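Submission checklist for the structure archive. All mandatory fields must be present; incomplete records are returned to the submitter.

[x] Identifier: Nucleoside-diphosphate sugar epimerase
[x] Organism: Vibrio inusitatus NBRC 102082
[x] Residue count: 223
[x] Sequence attached
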Amino acid sequence: MTLNTSIVIAGATGLVGRETLKAVLKDYRVSKVISLSRRKIEMEDSKLEQWITNDLSKPELQANNLTPSVGIIALGTTLKKAGSKEKLRAIDVDLVANTAKTMREMGVKHLVVISCLGANPKALSHYLRCKGDMENLVEGLNFDNVSFMHPGPLAGDRHEHRTDEKLLQGMMRFVTPLMIGKLRNYAPIEANDVAQAILKLMYMHNKKPVSRVTTQQILKMVA
């Protein structure tokens, strides 16, 4: 990836998506950013073009014949917010996979997807199983490179209030120093660190077509 990089991002209204959008807009190597979202983002930048649509998987594919080379998907929900397992799956699996397909058709070569630690189609947890199913579907789209971000609990300034998450983050501040080895992957991580790691991934030459990036790897990248 060189100068004049063009990017398409879906989910820029969420915690990681918002931080990632800020990061790529500030990067001098990025010339254009297309944001796919259901509502307008309160952010102005000469590089930013917003496509507002109720169906993120089928946007108007018109951007002055621009073909984005990098795609970023930061879509996801929780069971509590979705209201049912079926609705959670519709977002975390179907919407993400369909959006990835749209980006593939736009010409994206390198796709970065925000997933989660423990994603596995055989997991006992419905949430982790959905993430695993999503990853399998996205892998099947045959991008040149796919990077799945597997962060631990996310910390940062959410626009929505999640009491249970705030309590967990408070507890983890005391537990994190005791974590060693692979347990460090379960430590809370700032959304901005994930965003900065994504920015670095965009310009890295990945020998493997598919990679999964854990909290420890993210922190090494941004150190």
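[x] Structure attached
Curator remark: The helical segments are 15-26, 79-82, 85-106, 126-139, 163-175, 191-202, 215-222. Residues 118 and 128 are 6 Å apart (CA to CA).
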